[in-house]
Amino acid sequence: MSGRRKLAGWGRYPVLDARLYQPRDVADVQDLVQRQPGLIARGNGRAYGDSAVNADSTIDMRLLNRMLAFDAERGQLVAEAGVLLGDIIAAFLPRGWFPMVTPGTKFVTLGGAIAADVHGKNHHRDGSFRSCVDWIEVMGADGRITRCSADQDPQLFTHTLGGMGLTGIVIRAALRLRPVQTGWIRQVGHPAANLAAAMEIFETSADATYSVAWIDCLGTGSQLGRSLVMLGEHAVPADLSPEAAEDPLRPPAKGKRTVPFDFPRLALNRWTVRAFNALYYRAGVRNAGAQVVDWDSYFYPLDALQRWNRIYGRQGFAQFQCVLPLARSEAGLTALLQAIAQAGAGSFLAVLKRFGAQNSPFSFPMEGYTLALDFPVTSRTLALLDRLDAIAVANGGRFYLAKDSRMSASTLRASDDRAIAFARMRAEQGWDGRFHSHQSERLSL
Amino acid sequence: MTKPSVLILGGRSDIGLATARAFAAQGHPIRLAARQSALLDPERADIALRHDVDVTLHDFDVLATDSHAAFLDSLPDLPGIAVCAVGAGGDQEESERDSDAAVQVMRTNFEGPAAIFTQLANRFETRGSGTLVGISSVAGERGRATNYVYGSAKAGYTAFLSGLRNRLASKGVHVVTVLPGFVATRMTRDMDLPAALTAQPAEVGAAIAKAVARRKDVIYTRPVWRLIMMIIRNIPEKIFKGMRL
């Protein structure tokens, strides 16, 4: 049930030597919590950096993956922390339910989604994952399980959502699902020639259920921030082709491909990324307008390409995701995009999104714009990431810990005054001695 | 059309649960039978929620053979498929020291499973249909110093299943013998098993569901074990007795 191995996050940077335990039930977890001096829970390893790695003991929670109860009146599912969002969709979409909030991959566990308080394309309307979580059961440093919610032990609830596993181990939770009539999304694409145009579309599309933009971060001058904004709505049977409408909750399963090996470093450079971006934008302009796509292609396009993290090569990649307050968004995003284009270090998975009001006090999102990009890890891109950090901080921005793998403790403190209070609370509650990750140590949380 | 129910004897075992999941995924109602079955309620809920099928729990003790008829009568219906995942590895050293312990291992792995299958076989034969799946072990293919008590019980069970299959072949009742090699379960959690030879319980469950659908007689999981056991069976006894396996 345990062994030493190389562990990393989805970005495969940094890679650490760690001891991994795989408990089978709550009693096993209890035993580990009481025996190990320091530990961190790990879900399906989709955080990009070192959030879910502790060299002495990393607790793989994936075997605690039972669905325990479903209340069809309220759409409330009670499940153990290791259940994958994809399992929930597989079980409940055929019965007309879909997650209320989902990140860009369905391969996250319930516990991981809570720990990162993930957000989706509907954040501007529905808020972060917290919006659909009724309660959480958390195992503390003494092995006891506490149920917390907005009314019951709200301090634990609030800080477990977005607390990156540093308040204890999420054991079970109750989350509400959204009723849907079909497994399809009505998608409308809007090309935007530059950043101002993209932001204009977001600002006038606040009613759309889902909105997100792919952004070409190699554009310069009048093309700086050229984007494809994609809006989406859950389709109703009348939107579907007669064939699809026959079984509207079960779109045909998609094929899967796997990246077979680590791409060589040279495969991704400014020219290949520039060519990709140009083609992608042109295809987007050509396909602008409405189309109906299945849930899997709409929400999880990258899940169809298993182990896509290999395209960045063996050295891995680093994600950068910040959010800038609304008033500083345009200036801050312009400065970030200029710095990226200047460095010629384009990322082809660059995403821009308008966040709605902050609904969870300790979580990453706040009202404004979030930009997410990834870069292969090299000394040059690490230096660029430091420059981007500084630009974000100068514009009142803060960072998403689920994506971070290399930020400094001083950058975190400069960007987020909640960090010091959180570290103090961890000390007061006795959480810091027991629950820590490579990331929490790096960031002095 | 509703699918026939699947009875899992030994519903607490990792292989039993994995088999239940594989059949539930195909839409079969599931009957989980084990001692203190109420403790299996989280598994019952999980299988029912994931697969939208009826799952019920039933108390069953494989060693209490005089209660077997009443147990079968108490089920909601006569199952279409019955899987026996009951078994206990036992402790070979203890079985060598203490003949009572050895008898317990033999009864749990052979006598009990054979007794319940005797009753199920007769009911299936009367009905003229049904599938019996017995989970035996490659350990029953040849006795080895390190686990021959367990192995001998499994050898008996394998022979029993073979005979039962022969008897019922013309009666519409099919018997599948499952011979798992190493499986990563609670029973083997502290052993250091070679990864390439070790199946996950879900793999065994899926293989069983497939074997039932294709009316296979004997399956090995993983299939490489068929080759390994062929070699082990064919080592001359003169050499074998001096080997440490």
Automatic annotation (TrEMBL), chain A:
A GO term, aspect molecular function: oxidoreductase activity
What does the UniProt keyword field contain?
Answer: FAD, Flavoprotein, Oxidoreductase
Domain FAD-binding PCMH-type intervals: 13-180
Q: Which Pfam families match?
A: FAD_binding_4 (PF01565)
The keyword DNA-binding is assigned to this record: no
Query: Membrane-crossing residues?
Result: none
Q: Which family does it belong to?
A: Belongs to the oxygen-dependent FAD-linked oxidoreductase family.
Can you say what this protein is called?
A: FAD-binding oxidoreductase
List the source organism.
Answer: Pseudooceanicola sediminis
UniProtKB/TrEMBL annotation, chain B:
**Protein keywords:** Oxidoreductase
Spell out the GO cellular component terms annotated for this protein, sorted alphabetically and separated by semicolons: membrane
Q: Which residues cross the membrane?
A: none
- Asked if the Swiss-Prot or TrEMBL record annotates the protein with the keyword Oxidoreductase, the reply is yes
Keyword Hydrolase listed: no
Q: Name one GO molecular function term.
A: oxidoreductase activity
Tell me which Pfam families the record gives.
adh_short
Q: Which InterPro entries match?
A: NAD(P)-bd_dom_sf, SDR_fam
What CDD domains does the entry give? SDR_c
- Domain of life of the native organism: Bacteria
Please report which protein family the annotation says this sequence is part of. Answer: Belongs to the short-chain dehydrogenases/reductases (SDR) family.
Q: What is this protein called?
A: SDR family oxidoreductase
Q: Which organism is it from?
A: Pseudooceanicola sediminis
